[in-house]
Amino acid sequence: MIQNPDFRRNINNSYTLIMNNLNRFILISLLMGSMACKQEAPKMKAINPADLDTSISPAADFDNYANGGWKKRFPIPDEKSRFGSFDQLADAGEVQVKNLISEIATKKHDAGTVAQKIADFYNTGMDTTKIESEGITPVQPLLDQINAIQNKSDVMKVVADFQTKGISPMFSLTSDADQKNSEKMVVYLLQGGLGMPDRDYYMKDDDRSKEIQAAYQVFLQKMFVLSGTDEATAKNDASVAYNMEKRMASASMTKLEQRDPQKIYHKMNLEGIQKTAPEIDWTAHFQSVGLQNPGDFIVCQPAFIAELGKMVNEVSVDDWKIYLKWKVINSLAPYLQTAFVNENFEFFGKTLSGQKAQRPRWKRVQAATNNALSEAIGQMYVEKYFPAEAKKRMLELVGNLRVSLGERINQLAWMSDATKAKAQEKLAAITVKIGYPDKWRDYSDLQVSTGSYVSNVLQARNFDFKYMIGKVNKPVDRTEWMMPPQMVNAYYEPTRNEIVFPAAILQPPFFFIDGDDAVNYGAIGVVIGHEITHGFDDQGRQFDKVGNLVDWWTADDAKLFGERTKVLAKQFSNFTVLDTLKANGDLCLGENIADLGGLNVAYNALQHVLKGNEKPIDGFTPDQRFFLAYAHLWAQNIRDKEIVRRTKEDVHSLGRFRVLGPLRNLPAFYKAFDLKEGDYMFLKEADRAVIW
Ligand SMILES: [Zn+2]
Predict the structure, then answer these.
(1) At 126, is the pLDDT very low, low, confident or very high (cuts 50, 70, 90)?
(2) How far is Cα 677 from Cα 451, in angstroms, rounded to an integer?
(3) What DSSP state is assigned to residue 137?
(4) Whole-angstrom Cα distance, residue 527 to residue 510?
(5) For residue 274, how far is its CA from the centre of ligand 1 (angstroms)?
(6) From the CA of 27, how far away is ligand 1's center (Å)?
(7) Is omega for the bond preceding 667 within 30 degrees of 0, making it cis?
(8) CA of 76 to the centre of ligand 1 (A)
(9) What is the mean pLDDT of residues 217-233?
(10) How far is the CA of 437 from the centre of ligand 1 (A)?
(11) Could you read off the pLDDT of 250-276 as tens digits, one per residue?
(12) How far is the CA of 564 from the centre of ligand 1 (A)?
């Protein structure tokens, strides 16, 4: 459930950046961000015959049956590593936002207005002549800070200052609801300090990992050269920085370990952390980032913090200076001159994800602008594009889905009445947010100028950091949104026990305002069911109705739940995703429980609405349309490198397996497509998973 906010900044991905800036990490989303560009407007037929490949039997391969035609028609654009039906929607949204921003960017605005900020941010990013002529000067003040370092205490002062600028060397600081006292905001300290997206990139020694490690070191060296270091020194510096990161990686928890909320919850105060890592002056550090009194806070990975302390002692000041220089370059490369941007893309885009070409500049700059002023742009987006009617229809759907899960809980044969009663309480307490926040964020204190693009990026990050730190030790603001309305995604947040659906997801292929019930329950209905089920997946179930990490299960029920989820994890771990690479059923367990639960709950809700009506539309029965609409959400093409990357990093299964995996557990699916023993989609009843 925890996502280190440092990561993926360099993949030029607007929407994961939004999450970075909001410093959210206890959030379970529908999909891992990756949104962009245009292809087909979202005016689409709910079930389009051209999307199917009817030469394939639904019983043999439901993904290629339902999506084969789509996959042929929509190859991956060069600038992407994956392209799916929801990327089409995100692309259309990107064009809508482009229209909003373009109109603002070409006009003059009064200083201090949101329009001035959007215009100046975007225009400084698009001014390539200026950016090229400036070279590395926009980051020179940061490099000067590093050059002035004399001793270990100076190192930590610069680390603290960089953390306030979103550069985050060593570790990350964020604020969030205390998982064991969900009314109060506290500081979280998270492992971090790496340049690659996960500790496994440093620690694994298979061929693909070794290839990436070698490419990464060459990348470091090139970046040092670009920033003015001679070849020989750059080679040395690259090796120093890499080895420091590797040491941090070796002390880091794996993604899988971090899925256990108890394992990453260690409440401490100043005295406690001073004992954990005595080499760092923690009082001074908190003060430097603007926290005079941090109070009690949560250290997610104490062993990592302890190792950092040792590193502060053992690593020379000169080596720390090299490491910090690398952090600055790596963090700001996407906003510097072309040479930096291109090298950054070579590694993060091409080598890690298999992208063939960079996204056009306007998309990258728009993403950064959208990131810096997400809710300001979101407010305009909603006014122009979000129909009030969609919200009404959604509220009705959510209501029906909630009732449906309640019914399913009551009918569970494996759960005791005592746990059922608590589950019902939690279900009834879930807060629902649809479209956009009631209260918009205030951007008055954000400084944006016609100066350098880099300085605007740093100002925006610092604005976010202060906003985040400003919440510490205060009551949780339950009106706050963790995603902006223009984002195609949805989430469940366990400490708030809430499900949230931004406006942008309430369009095809998720939501068809004029569509029949079968397709809407199969698409957005399953998404709603998915998010609700997150409250009851292997992580979410550990939080109670008010969002506290409290065990409300009887020991027997917890055991039975574990046995059932193991069946599902095993099913997914048997999927081969590429050559000899298998899916990681343990890492994706929570998401797969949510997909399976979402399908069951939405299907059950649909039956209430259909009331026995089995009239086909366009040759498909309502049940068939339900499953086709579901499968279509995950129609996607993906590059091999991206398969490898996501299998390592993403807690969501790949699109193809989000179709194949859960459906094989649904009796209604067997009936709808007349599955027989021996079909690929057929599992023996004893091998099927039934959880929610
Ligand atoms: Zn999810």
Answers:
(1) very high
(2) 67
(3) G
(4) 8
(5) 37
(6) 9
(7) no
(8) 24
(9) 98
(10) 21
(11) 999 999 999 999 999 999 999 999 999
(12) 19
- Counting every residue written for the chain, the total comes to 692
- Provide, for the chain, the percentages of residues in helix, strand and coil under a 3-state DSSP scheme, each rounded to the nearest 5: 55, 10, 35
506 CB neighbour count, 10 Å cutoff: 24
How far is Cα 75 from Cα 356, in angstroms, rounded to an integer? 13
CA geometry: angle 85, 87, 89, nearest 5 deg: 80
For 148, 207, 407, 566, 590, the CA distances from 649, given in Å and listed in that order, are 37, 17, 35, 20, 14
Q: How far apart are CA 195 and CA 168, in angstroms?
A: 11
Is pLDDT at 68 greater than 60 in this prediction?
A: yes
Across the chain, mean pLDDT equals 93
For 232-253, the pLDDT digits (tens) are 999 999 999 999 999 999 999 9
Assign 492 to helix, strand or coil: strand
Q: What are the backbone dihedrals phi and psi of residue 221, each rounded to the nearest 5 degrees, phi first? A: -60, -45
H or E element that contains 3: none
Measuring CA to CA, which residue among 578, 558, 577, 554 is closest to residue 566? 558
Between the CA of 597 and the centroid of ligand 1 the distance, in Å, is 11
Going from the Cα of 517 to the center of ligand 1, the distance in angstroms, rounded, reads 23
Residue 402 gets the label, from left (phi > 0), alpha (psi -120 to 50) or beta, of: alpha
Burial of 383: CB neighbours in 10 Å, binned 0-12, 13-18, 19+? exposed
Reported as a pLDDT band with limits 50, 70 and 90, residue 33 is low
Question: pLDDT tens digits, residue range 467-508?
Answer: 999 999 999 999 999 999 999 999 999 999 999 999 999 999
- Give residue 305's pLDDT band: very low, low, confident or very high (50, 70, 90): very high
Cα–ligand 1 centroid distance for 646 (angstroms): 15
C-alpha of residue 576 to centroid of ligand 1, in Å: 22
Residue with tokens 């009663």, as numbered in its chain:
421
CA–centroid distance, residue 169 to ligand 1 (Å): 29
Residue 44: per-residue pLDDT: 65
